[in-house]
Every structure is written in C-alpha cells, then in structure tokens.
Amino acid sequence: MKDIMIMNVKKIALGASVVFFANFAFAQTLQDGINSMDSDKFAAAKTNFTSMIAKEPTAENYFYLGNTFLRQGEPDFAQATENFNKGLAADKKSYLNQIGLATVKLGKGDKSAIAEIQKIVSDSREKDAAVLFRAAEALTLFEKNNSPDLAVQFLNKAIERASRKEVPAYYYYTLGDAYRLKRVPGDAMTAYDNALPLAKNKASVYTRIGTLWMAAQQWQQAKTSIDKAISTDATYAPAYKALAAYNIKYQENAKATQDLINYTKYADEDPYTQLEIAKLYFTNEDYANSKAILDKIFDKIDDPIKFKLRSYVNYADGQYAEAKQNMDSFVSKADKSRIQPADQGLMGLIAAGLAKTETDAAKKSALQAEAQQKIGLAKAAKDETLKWDMELAKINGGGASQAAVNAGPTSPEIESFKKLVAANPQDSDALYKLANAYQDAKNWNGAVVTWQKMSTLLPDWAPAYYSQGYAYQQAGNNDAAKISYEKFISTVKPAEVEANKQTLAYAYFAVAYLEKDKDLAKAKDYVAKSVQLDPTYQDAVKLNAEINK
Prior knowledge:
Elements: H1 24-38, H2 42-55, H3 59-71, H4 77-90, H5 95-107, H6 112-123, H7 129-138, H8 148-162, H9 169-181, H10 185-195, H11 202-215, H12 219-232, H13 237-249, H14 253-266, H15 271-283, H16 287-297, H17 305-316, H18 320-333, H19 341-357, H20 361-380, H21 388-397, H22 402-407, H23 412-423, H24 428-440, H25 444-457, H26 463-474, H27 478-491, H28 501-515, H29 520-533, H30 538-547
Helix pairs in contact: 1-2, 2-3, 3-4, 3-5, 4-5, 5-6, 5-7, 6-7, 7-8, 8-9, 9-10, 10-11, 11-12, 11-13, 12-13, 13-14, 14-15, 15-16, 15-17, 16-17, 17-18, 18-19, 19-20, 19-21, 21-27, 23-24, 24-25, 25-26, 26-27, 27-28, 28-29, 29-30
C-alpha cells in the first residue's frame, strides 16, 4: 500500500533528554534503550526502560517508556498514556510527561494539543534543551497532525541551549524531519549533513538521507545512500526497510522479499514491528508471508489496524465476507481520523465482490451502488493504494485467480515452465514461455496471471500489457482487457511507435470497439488513431465508417 511503501523518517528519528545520572552503567542503559529504538528493536527498548523504572521509578524514566509506545510503527496511545500519567504521579510538574500526554492528543487528531505543547514550553521558560527538543519531536511525529514551523523554532532554540556543551545528533535528525514536513528538502538535507559527523552510528543518518532522496523521487541518489548505510552497519534494520521500499517501487519483488527477511533478522520480535513487516509484505504482493506474520501476532496487538490489514489479505484471497467483517471491525474500533480514502476504496471493492453472488435483486443493486460510490471516493482522493478500475474489472469479469488458473487446461510445456519460474521468479524468459504455453493451451486465466507477473518484473516492457489485454479479452473480461490495452498504449515510448504500429493499431481498435456503446467520443478518437497507424486494417476501417455515419 502507497502510504506504507516509502519509509517515513520520522519513525526512526529519535532522541534523548539530557539527563545526568551518578551511576555511569545506569546512564549506559538509557543509551542502550535509545539505540534499540533507533534500530527498530522496540521490544528491547521497552525491556530497557522497564528495567530502569524498576531501579528508579522517576518521571523521566516513565516518559522514556511511554515515548517508546508512540515511536513504534503503530502508536499504542493507551500504553503511552498510562506511563505518562505514572510519570506525572511521580512528579506533577514533569514537563516531559505533560508533553507526552499532549502528544497523545495530537496523535489522535486533536490539534488543540499544539497550543498545549506551546504553553508547556512557555511554562518551562525555555531553559531546558530536552524539553524544547521533545516538544519539537512531538510536533513532527504525525504525518497529518503536526506543526513543523513551530518545531523548527523549538529545535533551533534547543540546539542553541545544547551548544554550550555538545549538540546531540538527534537534534539535527528531528530538525531534518521538520523541514521535510515543511517541504523544504534543501534545509532537511543540511540538517542531516550536520548530524553526520556527530552520529555514533552513521548508518542511521545515511538511511534518513536515503529516504529523503526517495521522497524527492531521486532514486539513484537514494540507493547510493541506503547502500552506504548498509556498508557502514550491516545490522542496522531500518536501512533494509528503506531498501525494501526502494525495490517495491521498482517492482523488484524478490529483492524486496529478501530485504524484508533481513529487516526481520535485525529488528526484533516486538508485535508492532512485526505488524509493520506484515504491511510491507502486503505492499510487495507477498500475501502468503503477510498472512503468516499477521496470524502469528494478531492476538498480541490491540491496535485495530490489525483488522484492516487482515481485511486486505482476505480481499486478496477473494474472501469478501471475511474481508467485510474485518473492515467493519476496524471502522468501529479505530478513531475516525484513521480511516483513509484507500479504506473507502477497499470497502467498495468488497461490496462489488459481495454483489457478484448476491441473489436478492435489491441487495445486489445496493451493493453495486455502494461499490461505485466508495471506489469513487478513493479515486477522487487520487489514492493509488490499489488499481481501482482494474480491481473492479477483475471482480466483475471473474477469473484470473490462482484457483481459476489451476482449474484450467495444462500441458507438459506449462508444467515444465512452471518449475523454472518457481525456481527463479525473476527469470523473464521462463515467464514469457510460460505465458505463451498457457495461451497455446487456451488457459487464458493462466496467461493473464503470468503476463501480470511479467509486467511486474519488467514494468516498462509494453508488450506484456498488450498480451495481458488479449488474454483478458479471450477470457471474456472485456473491462480488464480494455484497461490492459490502454496501459500498453501509454507504455509504448515515442521511439518505439514505429516498431509497434500494427499492435498499437489493434489496441486502439480494441478499446474503441469496447467503448463504442459507452463513450462514443472516445471510441471515435481511438478508432481514428487505429486507422491512422494502419490504414489497411479492415476491422478498424469498418468500425470507423460505422460510428461516423
């Protein structure tokens, strides 16, 4: 899913209050906890801070533990609140824990918390760099509820206070995050560059720089920075998460799967970290691994997002009733601010799936109307979590599921090429031969699925989309065929038009033919382009004459 494809740097930019302890080993334990959070080892961090509380139940230690629950992939507001309240019980004037509670409000969508944070800083008289830092951190933590201008202001003051001794690298990390939210990438990069010589683990900084390049869609620079992170510290888990996002962008599914395996290896077994991994597996279209991880942790996490992810997995398996039940659970339990346009779109697709088997005419009509309305909301929001039109076309047209492929005809050639593809999913030659073997056997669902894998492996290779359209058309799914043909047309580069003239002529004709009873203007435009490309193509010539009478 797009909102989880690009690793958000705010999830890994961490810091620590400047706290002095008489016992050096105890201070080292604090640093261990901070390092664990920075490495996405939240279970280890929680163990560290819980141990610190057991030794000395101070307000600051309760704050560190509570803050860990806010920094994990999906915040646990209840656990965070509990610890911040315990911190205030230990010291009712604790500015850190006051900021913690205000951060919870902000995370839940209550923007009045921004003014609260501002007042807490004012009450502290801006004397403590740690309070200024934590206030700024809170104002950069949430993608939709933040105040980066105020955060920059607080961070500059924190850096000024801390400069009397030594500015911690994480002050600059968070300053970079604030500038990212302000959409000032140059200043963000400068802040990360300032952090680089101060950071004990430079992999942390290189990863942030890499994700900043990704946000700017400068992919080669992003890859270079992420590679530097891994070469600096091959055990730094967030670098592999960033690399997975990079490979998912380039639809390098096998590489992304290996990145996620490495991320799992170097992060820890904290259920919320595992939830992040399950989401990334889903984004990588690795539904089996996503489901396996989700099943393992489902009862260990309280966050209702688990129902949403399970709904997506159910949908991918064609289990529409189960998908609806889980999505309904998410909507009923989650804060309304957490329901995204993509969730509306998924509910629309689920309704379309349920409509397929509904026998009551009134209920069927209502489900179809719901599908159009909710998918329309996702498309209006320009959400690209799923290919909404293609997903709807696949539901309405049926087929193309693995079960449909297995139920179709096979041949010795199919079985042979299936083994080659299973041994190496990146073997484009084997995929090409398997797709053609399915077509020779008239197993059109098999051809559709295989050409889809080919286009995922080679997204810029236009013929895969044309072949997928042809297979969909032969399978009787005209809506999906039309979408595939249009993808072929848009993927052919100008320099390739001459070599693809005849194929383009057919694609334009096919779309025109399929649109002639729905969108006559578009059909006229497309058939004219078909004739222009190949004036000898008689089917296009006849259709052109017919619809221009």
